[in-house]
Amino acid sequence: MNGSGTAPTPSPRTTYRRLGVEERRTQLIAAALALFAHRAPEDVSLDEVAAAAEVSRPLVYRYFPGGKPQLYEAALRSAADDLQLCFAEPQTGPLTGRLSAALDRYLGFVDEHDAGFSALLQGGSVVETSRTGAIVDGVRRAAADQVLAHLRVREPGPRLRMTVRTWITAVEAASLIWLDEGKQPPLPELRDWLVDQFLALLLATGAGDEQVSKVVRAVLSLETPEGRAGLLARRVTPMLSAADHLL
Amino acid sequence: MNGSGTAPTPSPRTTYRRLGVEERRTQLIAAALALFAHRAPEDVSLDEVAAAAEVSRPLVYRYFPGGKPQLYEAALRSAADDLQLCFAEPQTGPLTGRLSAALDRYLGFVDEHDAGFSALLQGGSVVETSRTGAIVDGVRRAAADQVLAHLRVREPGPRLRMTVRTWITAVEAASLIWLDEGKQPPLPELRDWLVDQFLALLLATGAGDEQVSKVVRAVLSLETPEGRAGLLARRVTPMLSAADHLL
To answer: Which residue spans does the record list as DNA-binding (chains A, B) (predicted)?
Structure first.
């Protein structure tokens, strides 16, 4: 409510002092993640992180005495926390709608973090350790658990677990390929394709596994003609005429 | 034809002298690969490689002056050459038969190299460099090219390329999960499941892409009722009754 020009604009120094410990930490991690989005972590210096956060290099060291490896791990953990939330979706309605919403969040994260996402997942980074590998594996496991929860299966057998883990890897691989191909096709198309893939994988696996076969029936019973499964079913049917000689 | 006991048994030293440069190199790489199969490359010392090959440590250094990183890279390149041959299969007969033969070789390689395969592909190894990453990527690209050749597509569109690359990643991921789960299920089951996955992925992708749709029809026309596609089609059909409301 101050009239413009009457109150002094807070200087960076004032802002600097005002941030609490957690806020400052969060700010430094955000600055690091923003830089990792455009360059590989090994090419980003602590000086650049300090400059981006408008603080001194010693301040960065106060928060991350272990230097870049520690900051990198903290940034990775923060990104992992965000990624893990992607698949947390209310367990109501058709599965394809839930997966679509989850993938929109996941792919949005990929889009935003760009090269940083590749660096995190592809490894080969000089700041990579067995601990950072464990964080990435943790994200995969959490995503798989959430997908299994959506399938309402309490005790998933080996084949169902393998199917879900394989699909999670396919999502990851497709995301990396998507970045590699200059973000083509548009995200909604990529999302729909990944949802279709999941249905197709479930169906193919259900052909040889009783538990997965039951899951498929339960999943399909919740789908609607307007949804992704309906569209896929109507589009696949004409192609199947080429399989008549196999039945 | 010598009577046993009359000719002197060749001593290791004799064998040592007889090997040519290429043979010796191949032998050292084989020894390294055998050790990597049971332990991570970073836990294997050059002394152990020398002992396994029954040669001195200086001899190993004569062939690999760069020490372990160089030996590791040579071993990786040798493994990559073997892996690249897996998908080279005559382009005749039903696709599922060709993929099955290729996967039998690929999965046989995984089975034989065990932990070494994980180390190669999962990264996170301290001896990993951007060059070793490029070798692994080269295997993936070669496998994708060979699968595309089996589909008899000269100019694959982005969706078809993405489908094949995603499947290659799924094969890799499933192999790692298979090792992780104590080599369960038996290899032939894993192979059949991966072949089924490929058909399912093609079908789901063909639903939204004209080129892939044509590939699906061409692939199915070559399949026989006794083959994998026939079995899959007959098993999936009953499940699809749960999708009648979507058509």
So the answer is: 45-64
Rounded alpha-carbon distances, angstroms, from residue A157 to A65, A149, A210, B185: 45, 13, 10, 11
Mutation pick from B118, B125, B187, B193 vs chain A, by most beta carbons of A within 10 Å, is B193
Using alpha carbons, select from B145, B163, B133, B25 the residue that is nearest to residue B86.
B145
B237/A contact by beta carbon, under 8 A = yes
Residue B41 has a pLDDT of 77
Closest CA to A170 of B102, B197, B184: B197
- How far A64 CA sits from the closest chain B CA (Å)? 23
Q: Does B185 touch chain A (CB under 8 A)?
A: yes
Nearest to B158 among A169, A181, A232 (CB): A181
Note whether residue B107 is domain-resident.
yes
Q: How many domains does chain A have?
A: 1
Q: Which tens digit of pLDDT belongs to each residue from A187-235?
A: 999 999 999 999 999 999 999 999 999 999 999 999 999 999 999 999 9
Is the link from the previous residue into B225 a cis peptide, with omega within 30 of 0? no
In which domain, by residue range, is A184 found?
A: 72-220
What number is the ipTM of this complex?
Answer: 0.83
State whether residue B151 is helix, strand or coil: coil
CATH of the domain at B124: 1.10.357.10
With contacts defined as CB-CB under 8 Å, which chain A residues touch B182? none
Residue B133 lies in a domain: yes
